[in-house]
Amino acid sequence: MSDTAPRPTLEAVAARAGVSRATASRVVNGGDGVREPLVARVRKAVDELGYVPNQAARSLVTRRHDAVAVVIAEPETRVFADPFFALQLRGISKELTAHDNQLVLLLIEGRDDHARVGRYLAGGHVDGALVFSLHLDDPLPGLIQHAGVPTVFGGRPGWSDGKGGPVYVDCDNRDGARTAVRHLVGLGRSRVAHITGPLDQTSAADRLDGFRDVMTDVDPRLIVESDFTPAGGEQAMRELLDRRPDLDAVFAANDLSAAGALRVLRERGRRVPEDVAVIGFDDVGPVAEQTDPPLTTVRQDIEEMGRLMARLLLGRLDHRGGGETAGNLVSTENLRIVGTGENSEGAPSGVVLPTTLVRRASA
Amino acid sequence: MSDTAPRPTLEAVAARAGVSRATASRVVNGGDGVREPLVARVRKAVDELGYVPNQAARSLVTRRHDAVAVVIAEPETRVFADPFFALQLRGISKELTAHDNQLVLLLIEGRDDHARVGRYLAGGHVDGALVFSLHLDDPLPGLIQHAGVPTVFGGRPGWSDGKGGPVYVDCDNRDGARTAVRHLVGLGRSRVAHITGPLDQTSAADRLDGFRDVMTDVDPRLIVESDFTPAGGEQAMRELLDRRPDLDAVFAANDLSAAGALRVLRERGRRVPEDVAVIGFDDVGPVAEQTDPPLTTVRQDIEEMGRLMARLLLGRLDHRGGGETAGNLVSTENLRIVGTGENSEGAPSGVVLPTTLVRRASA
DNA sequence: GCACGGGGAGAGAGCGCTCTGGCATCAGGA
DNA sequence: TCCTGATGCCAGAGCGCTCTCTCCCCGTGC
Questions:
Q1: What single string gives the DSSP state of each residue in A69-86?
Q2: pLDDT single digits (tens) B144-178
Q3: What span, in angstroms and rounded, lies between the C-alpha atoms of B55 and B345?
Q4: Could you tell me the residue ranges of all domains in chain A?
Q5: Which residue in the set A103, A230, A285 is minimally distant from B290, CB to CB?
Q6: In the structure, how far is the CA atom of residue A43 from the C1' atom of nucleotide D26, in angstroms?
Q7: pTM of the predicted structure, to 2 decimals
Q8: DSSP-derived secondary structure letter, B168
Q9: Strand (E) positions, A143-302?
Q10: Beta-carbon count within 10 A of A131 CB
Q11: Chain A residues with CB inside 8 Å of B54's CB?
Q12: Which tens digit of pLDDT belongs to each residue from B269-299?
């Protein structure tokens, strides 16, 4: 059982088909420049022997791996409480498998993991990397740049690489926040509070900016920095109610913290949305639909963002295949392309997807 | 940027250290049989050049990949709504990285994906596989067995491979269910209902068995088959209330469906736990803690199960390293080992972890 | 009819590594 | 002193594949 029959080699296929190894290789890799009868013979031999190319041998010479690393930095345990990453992973996986690429998952839990991941990427095991949830002080971008691995970031990074900017995919956080807050204002609410995410992440900072765009001259006591978790949302909500018992709306920076806020509101006897209207951000199904009342929230197409990241990365890897640009990589309808053409391949440095407000019962 | 300096080879390291490639290789791989001064010189050269072994070249000759596939079969969209898999992934990732193994994630979404995964596993890209959430009719086990890849299953598979049984890790579903139901009975409830999971999965079937162990002669109308989702839980709860409006307790086969049931109960004006006591299963934090009221549930250490799966698999891969058995692979305290010694390596065919009841407010 | 060109196939070199012999070198016993 | 047996290192083969280079064969043009 542990010793299965040795796998057939290309040599064996060639012998069976009565051709040279080179011809067999050509057929296996697409069959250009080989005449039909030989192609058929080789194909037949491949099927009969159950030949599968040895990826290690192939990589050794081509220096390609057809594998992409997905790096998720997870300083806290947050990642896995939030379906957000799971959805992105799904989008990524779909796109990668559609292009015969493998997904190597690298989870960063502790400080030394950064070094490990850096070493892995530098080791040239993968052709590229998709990197998530960076904080501003994260050492990872430096390691990646040093490793020289083509990378696409999930969420706008808060720094520049001096070459036209890192390539990333994000949703329009600021505009989404504006839409949410405008909706609250349109409901006649004037004392709108904001529970932020960790402000060292651009998504949280951008949402705060959007909030401020609409709520100019807001009472600073109506803004509490939190951490995207339900528990953090609870705590922030308590603080807000203590500071400004008269608040009549809350915009939480994500659904998870909105769920925490809802619980505290109920606990304190505030009716939602009658007394306090609540809006979240993300629209991650299991959370937003299951709260009481169901959460009005800003929707971003998370899975699509994952898919887009993968597509963008694969496009960059294909530069040998000749100049793909954003235009044919991604359907440009409905999305904004930022900083086009600065970097060497003429690819966009950022792709920003629109958001939509999903009305449920909480606002 | 796309063309970085060529990575240093072992040859370069050897040259710099003034030794042969073979000696350099020995040092890189542990350094046995090389005298100290040479070891130091090689190490120094490695550091100075920033040498990282080329995994492809290494795999080509060793036939090892130091990579493990994690296969998640996800016929519905369920996987990603449920933090369950995320937690297992985390445990697996920790254990794998601790042993310098990579995690290749294979998601199965549609029917043809089975073939793709089967081909990948047969292609010898990974040393082993961890496989999840199999349904009884799943073609995957057959493909895996055919591919001859060492595999550990998450959750007891519902079939046998005729060699002492497939190796798996599971929690004691049946006993957990018994504990839950006994707790409800101990609370004075006599009309206990059960919302099952999909009964083609052993976890759901085992929990039902445990329910029946305690509720002998139960009214069949008190049992509704569901699907582990919140929406399914809602529907099941409605059906139960219609059939038996007098029910006074519900044991849901997982937390997600319990959350759905709670919502319906509230909607129908039943107080929890006063009118109806509710218990879930899994104790996945974000769900169980965030329901209203917080959910009493059966806890299984999901992350530890993941870790155990990885450890078990790595142990099986290490048979060349000389007969590891369950005893030193896993701490045997608190866990049950099933069907020991039937298969060739004397490894356990199943490892079953205990569950504990976590009391919160719902029962 | 002969030179020439182009396309299709094969031979062979290597990708970077591990690992098996085999050859020194040195210690210890006769 | 010579032989034996470790011990430590090197030389070289080869893992399975791709890809260039070369050769051959056939069709074409003058």
A1: EEEEE-SSSHHHHSHHHH
A2: 887 788 999 999 888 776 666 789 999 999 999 99
A3: 28
A4: 10-62, 67-170+303-350, 173-299
A5: A230
A6: 26
A7: 0.88
A8: E
A9: 151-154, 168-171, 192-195, 223-224, 249-252, 277-282, 296-299
A10: 28
A11: 60, 124
A12: 999 999 999 999 999 877 788 788 999 999 9
Q: Which two tokens stand for residue B165?
A: 């049984």
User: Between vectors from CA B292 to CA B289 and to CA B294, what angle results, nearest 5°?
Assistant: 35
Residue of B nearest to A150 (CA): B2
For β-strands B223-224 and A296-299, DSSP reports them as: unpaired
Output the furthest CA–CA distance in chain B (Å, rounded).
85
Nucleotide in closest CA–C1' contact with B60: D15
How far apart are alpha carbons B144 and B119 in whole angstroms? 9
Instruction: Extract the tokens encoding B323.
Output: 């007969």
One fold for A10-62 and A67-170+303-350:
no
Mean pLDDT of chain A: 86
- When comparing pLDDT for A109 and A276, which is higher? A276
Residues B72 and B109: beta-carbon distance below 8 Å: no
How distant, in Å, are the alpha carbons of A124, B93, B108, B186 from that of A69? 11, 14, 18, 51
Under CATH, what is the fold of the domain B10-62?
434 Repressor (Amino-terminal Domain) (1.10.260)
pLDDT tens digits, A202-238: 999 999 999 999 999 999 999 999 999 889 999 999 9
Helix (H) or strand (E) holding A67: strand A67-73
Name chain A contacts of B105, Cβ cutoff 8 Å.
70, 89, 93, 103-105
pLDDT band at A328 (very low <50, low <70, confident <90, very high): very low
Amino acid letter for position B15? A
C-beta of residue A300 within 8 angstroms of C-beta of residue A352: no
Burial A32-59 (b: 16+ CB within 10 A, else e): eebeeebbebbbebbeebebbbbbbbbb
At B208, list the tokens.
Answer: 């039902």
Q: Which residues pair with A105 in a beta bridge?
A: A70, B103
- Cα–Cα distance, A354 to A176 (Å, whole number): 8
| Cβ atoms of B21 and B42 closer than 8 Å | no
The DSSP element (H or E) to which B281 belongs, if any, is strand B277-282
Give which of A72, A107, A126, A161 to mutate to test B binding, by max B Cβ within 10 Å: A107
Q: CA separation (Å) from A34 to A28, A74, B223?
A: 11, 50, 64
Give the per-residue pLDDT at A320.
Answer: 45
Sign of CA dihedral B147, B148, B154, B157: positive
Which class does domain A67-170+303-350 fall in? alpha beta
pLDDT reading at A63 higher than 50? yes
Does strand C come within 7 Å of the CB of A64?
no
Strand order in the sheet with A223-224: A223-224, A192-195, A249-252, A277-282, A296-299, A356-358
Report how far residue B300's alpha carbon sits from residue B358's, in angstroms, rounded to the nearest whole number: 10
Burial class (CB in 10 A: 0-12, 13-18, 19+), B276: buried
Distance CA B207, CA B229 (A): 16
Residue B343 has pLDDT above 70, yes or no: no
Distances (CA, A) of A288 to A78, A88, A129, A255, B167: 17, 17, 30, 6, 38
Which residue's entry shows tokens 């498998």? A97
Superfamily name and number for B173-299:
Response regulator (3.40.50.2300)
**In which residue are the tokens 């004075």 written?**
B188
Parallel, antiparallel, or unpaired for β B151-154 and A249-252? Answer: unpaired
Tell me if B56 and A54 make a contact (CB, 8 A cut-off): no
Angle CA B251–B252–B255, to nearest 5 = 130
From CA A133, how far away is CA A151, in angstroms rounded? 14
* Bases of chain C with protein Cβ within 7 A: 7-21
CA distance B204 to B69: 25
Q: Which helix (H) or strand (E) holds B236?
A: helix B230-243
A223 vs A149, which has greater pLDDT?
Answer: A223
